[in-house]
Amino acid sequence: MHGELTALLSATCYAVSNLLIRKGQDDTLPSDYGLFPVLLITGVILSITLTIDVSYDRGPLMDKGLAGTMGILFCALSGLLATLFGRLALYTAISRIGATRGSIIAAMSPLVTLTVALVILRERLTLFDKTGIGVLLVGVFLLLFEQKLFPTRFAPSDVVKSGIAIAVWATLFQGVGYAFRKVGILYPIDSLFAGVVDTWAALLLYIVFLSLTGRLVPLLRHYWSHMNLSIVSAGVVMSAAVYLFFEAVSDVPVSTVSVIMGTQPVIVALLAGLFMNKLERLTIATWLSSLIVCVGVILLGI
C-alpha cells in the first residue's frame, strides 16, 4: 500500500506542476516553455536533499561495480527520455492545448509500456487489456473532436492538432523512460540518488543542446528578467514528483505506478476547474475525456 500511496502523491505533484507551468507560460511566454528552470530547480533541490541525507550516513547509494554502473546508466537514460524529451514535448503541448488536454494524451503512456511488453516479452493481450485500449481510444477521440462539439473552443484547429501531436510524442518518451526508471532501481540504486542522476542527466544534455544552438545565453537573460513564482513553484513541486516516482517503483511494479500516473487528467481537471477555470477553459467533452482515459488506464492495470 505504501508504494501505491507514494505513486498517487507523485501523480498529484506532477499534476500540480503541470498547472503551474501553464500559469507561468501565460505570464512570461518563455521560449522553452519553462523547462530549463524546472530542471535546474529540481536538480538543485534533489541534490541538496541527497547531501543532507548522506550526512546522516543512511548507507551506500548504490551497489559497487557493474551493477551500480548499470543502475546509473538506466537512470540517466530515463532522464534523457522521460525528463528531458518527455517534459519538453509535454510543456510544448501544454502551451498549445492546456495542461488538462496535454495530460489526457500523456496518460496513455501505460499503453506504450504494454506495447513494449508485447513486442519484447511476447506477452499476450488479456480481455481487460483490449477493453482498456478501446476505452483509451474513445477518450482521446472525444478530445480530438472536442472542437466540433464546442466550436467556441479556445484555440484554432491547426494549433490544437499540432499540440495533440506533440503530446503523443511526450507519451512515447515518458512511457519508455518510466520503464528505464524501474530497471535502474532494480540494480539497485537509492531512489533519491536515482532522481538526482535522472534530473542532472536531462539538465546537462539540455545545456549542451542550448549551447550548440546558441540559445543558452538568450534563454538565461529571459529568465533572469522574467522569472515568476509559478515556474519556480513548478520546479519545487517537480522535485517531489520525481523523488516520489522513484520511491514508488522501488516498492511496486512500474506497471502499477504507470496506471496510477494515468489518473493525472482527472487531478489536473479538478484543480484547473477550481483554480484556473478561465485559463484552461474546460468543456464537458474535456471532463468526459479525462474520466474515460482514466478508466481505460485502470483497465490496462488489472
Automatic annotation (TrEMBL):
Signal peptide: none annotated. It is found in: Endomembrane system. Coiled coil: none annotated. Residues 3-144, 162-300 form the EamA domain. This is EamA domain-containing protein. InterPro entries: EamA_dom, EmrE-like. The keyword Nucleotide-binding does not apply. It is a multi-pass membrane protein. Belongs to the EamA transporter family. Keywords: Membrane, Transmembrane, Transmembrane helix. Its main location: membrane. The lineage of its organism: Bacteria, Bacillati, Bacillota, Bacilli, Bacillales. The chain crosses the membrane at residues 33-54, 66-90, 102-121, 133-150, 162-180, 192-212, 224-246, 258-276, 282-301. The keyword Transmembrane applies. It comes from the Bacteria. GO terms for cellular component: membrane.
